[in-house]
TrEMBL record, chains A, B:
FAD-binding PCMH-type domain location: 42-216
GO-annotated molecular function: D-lactate dehydrogenase (cytochrome) activity; D-lactate dehydrogenase (NAD+) activity; FAD binding
Taxonomy of the source species: Bacteria, Pseudomonadati, Pseudomonadota, Alphaproteobacteria, Rhodobacterales
Protein name listed in UniProt: FAD/FMN-containing dehydrogenase
A family per Pfam: FAD_binding_4
Keywords of the record: FAD, Flavoprotein
GO BP terms in the entry: lactate catabolic process
The keyword Ligase appears for this protein: no
Top-level lineage group: Bacteria
UniProt keyword Flavoprotein present: yes
Length: 467, 467
């Protein structure tokens, strides 16, 4: 099966394409370079061409044509992922959804939208229509698309209240196109959603998304400082357990993270300040202030509705989730990170165990989230990178202590997830992508069902580095 | 200190009053007769007169005048409480707030309202204005006032998501009038709210309420049937732990409650069916159905958006909370109830222990609620009443097993609460009601600070039964 790229490109020439080599290169990449291991392996990856469909009909045409010519298709939103989710490991076509971005319907509690819509634009539309917004978003919401978030994300700002994208009710419906001689149009709800959500576009292309909405408020952004990290973590956890206080974000940044890497915050903190970043609904501010006044160790150093900071630090959510890592990387390119889940009820205890084990080598950044109805932590700690071997060892040591790791130094679904096959996703790929052309190399169980996960998976079809 | 009722009544004659003796009697009562112990003690209680102020100025006038003439004042909403909260134990003036009921301002996430507003009317106003509703309400929301709920209630429909009224953020602000020679107007927020919320009007009169709002949806009412009670309880608990599914109510009714007492439900269930009553947001129905399909024991027998029942059973919330008891009492006047808290994480286990102990003598009715961020149960079991002694014994046996009891066979704040003095409420009563004229007999620590709670408190100032 040899792809005929030229023929596919020719047949699709009436659809908008990017021809500039620099554009093709940039649209073949995401934030994979957060990981030194992925940077070493994926830096050369590049599509043969980039096509920008503007409708479902054009998506179907791209899939049908590429199928006919055996050309791989990797779908892409804004490329804000960190796992190489949208990088075309085998080259071929990158299908960029930026032109396919209409907000179609808004109702109480839900919206119907095309996948290329940027989350910021989606929120602006639902807010203007009826004071609503999406329940959760990545810290990259100002550039990321809703389709990329559903296909490549797992949660984020809002997960402190709503849990993860994979939780029941956090996606209502997905419309999906298969990659066959005659692509089919399918509608998934309920159990079927798990086939294609968080599948990196490996087994179908999402063309319409129905998402639940939450009320949109004029969130008050805050930074609360603590001398003690455990006190800060306990505060954030307890605040999220206050049923009557509406929170959208609760992040904990271990000292000296804020002082070292948060540029416009630096002058307001010391090297020993651990910060908690928060978004609180305005009508919950009285309850919040009462809660905080009960904690003598808590100092509110910034609130967006009343402060004397000479320079606005920008939205607090752009300090949280994966933006924390980005800010640190700008100062120190040797930093990388992990994705840790500290599960209830041992979350606080586990974090302290990890801190005692690694000290400054692994600096704690926690995001409070709900899992199964209980408040716990997602950790995105900053790791001082020395070698791949040490990084792998750090991962293993976390797992040995009882933490769950979603390894961000891997480019496959399984390794970045629970290190096991997702039978539903694999079964649907068999049905929907018989030639295995959708985002190749990202689903290990498709290529090698017996993979043991004892080392990083090396996709055999990977583009070779040009000499 | 002898009250001069006639002088006070004369001085207030320009304010609307009820003169009809039957009206005075009915406005001196609430649902205290749920309890055989309260029925025996309070049935004769009656005000000397009932005044219906329509503004804060008139409230101040009533308080000032009654203060001058040493006349007790008991404030009253719709009289839907069950603890005799609004019953004038020492006679005097009942101040009925029905005319003082304006919705003053509605904003995103909050409303400002006068205390006499019926919750149904308040919800209609906030819904029409901006698709919002109060976070929680009693099952009597169609007749109860918002002021009565704040002063005499503790939670209800909506507590499955928002916890209790006492939790931070569930009341924003209260405006309160003192009973002094010159009544003062005070504004309470934060920690100060605990002085007067759930204080039965014993230490101040609420004249304005600022409450947080939640999004209002066209809730889908449902009944789900189970053969097994423990399975039903587990289902309700697990459903409430689904972070992505928006619930407003989850009640569990042990068999044969639904068959025996739920008139329009009877023909659709058997004597062995345990029912779960639910309110789910329409945009959460897909997630809900997916969740329910995973439980082979769950049968959805009614949903308000699609059913073939010849007669509409009415709102599901009018089967829950204290309405369950009301429905049972209509069939069997020997039934009474308890208020039990089964706390996380032993809630499921404790319920089974109680069931094994009492069998049919104490039939389980559970309401799922959040407490400290965790899902657990409020129990309002139906109790077969035989004697006061046995009822007291049942209460003690619950406490011995580790359940918390809010005793509904008591008319004082302390006995219906945590059986201890609330220092904040007492301190504020000293300040705001120096003559002790506000709702006398309801705060034990005012009358008898050394009370041991070893038997029912007998208010010495109680009106005598007329021969």
């Amino acid at each position: 099966m040899t792809p005929d790229v030229a023929a596919a490109k020719q047949a699709l020439s009436h659809i908008e394409m990017d021809e500039n080599p620099a554009t093709i290169r940039s649209k073949s990449r995401d934030f994979f370079w957060y990981s030194p291991m992925l940077k070493a392996r994926l830096d050369h990856v590049q599509a043969d061409f980039v096509v920008n469909p503007k409708s479902e009909a054009e998506v179907i045409e791209v899939l049908k044509t590429c199928y006919a010519h055996d050309v791989p298709v990797t779908v892409r939103g804004a490329g804000t992922g960190n796992y190489g989710q949208a990088m075309p490991l085998a080259g071929g076509c990158v299908m960029h959804m930026k032109n396919f971005a209409q907000v179609k319907e808004i109702h109480p509690g839900r919206v119907i939208v095309e996948p290329g819509c940027i989350i910021k634009d989606l929120d602006a539309a639902t807010r203007a229509h009826s004071g609503q917004e999406v329940r959760m978003m990545p810290s990259t919401a100002n550039t990321a698309t809703i389709g990329g978030f559903v296909a490549g994300g797992s949660g984020g700002v809002g997960s402190v209240k709503w849990g993860a994208l994979r939780d029941l009710g956090n996606i209502i419906r997905l419309r999906v196109i298969t990659m066959e001689a005659e692509p089919r149009v399918l509608e998934f709800r309920g159990e079927e959603l798990a086939r294609v959500s968080h599948a990196y576009g490996t087994n179908g292309i999402i063309t319409e998304i129905e998402m639940p909405l939450a009320p949109a408020y004029d969130w008050v952004d805050m930074f609360v400082a603590f001398d003690s990290f455990p006190e800060a973590a306990q505060y954030a956890c307890d605040l999220a357990n206050e049923d009557g206080i509406v929170l959208k974000l609760a992040s904990v940044y271990e000292a000296p993270m804020a002082h070292s890497y948060f540029q416009r915050v630096k002058e307001h903190v010391t090297e020993t300040d651990t910060l908690v970043g928060l978004m609180v609904a305005p009508h919950s501010m009285d309850g919040f202030e009462t809660f905080t006044a009960r904690r003598p160790g808590a100092r509110i150093i910034f609130r967006s509705d009343a402060n004397d900071w000479p320079r606005d630090p920008g939205p607090v959510f752009e300090f949280g989730w994966n933006h924390t890592t980005l800010r640190a990387l700008k100062f120190d390119p040797k930093i990388t990170y992990l994705q840790v889940r500290y599960q209830f009820p041992k979350h606080l205890e586990l974090v302290e165990k990890v801190r005692a084990t690694f000290g400054a080598e692994v600096l704690q950044h926690l995001e409070v989230l709900r899992e199964g109805g209980k408040v716990c932590f997602a950790g995105l700690p900053l790791v001082s990178y020395t070698s791949d071997e040490r990084l792998e060892e750090i991962v293993r040591m976390h797992e040995d202590m009882g933490c769950m790791i979603f390894n961000p130094h891997r480019y496959t679904l399984e390794e970045g997830g629970r290190q096991s096959a997702d039978a539903r996703q694999l079964a649907f790929k068999r049905e929907a992508d018989p030639k295995g052309l959708l985002n190749p190399g990202k689903m290990i169980t498709w290529d090698d069902p017996d993979w043991a996960y004892d080392r990083i998976y090396d996709y055999p079809g990977m583009l070779q580095v040009e000499p």
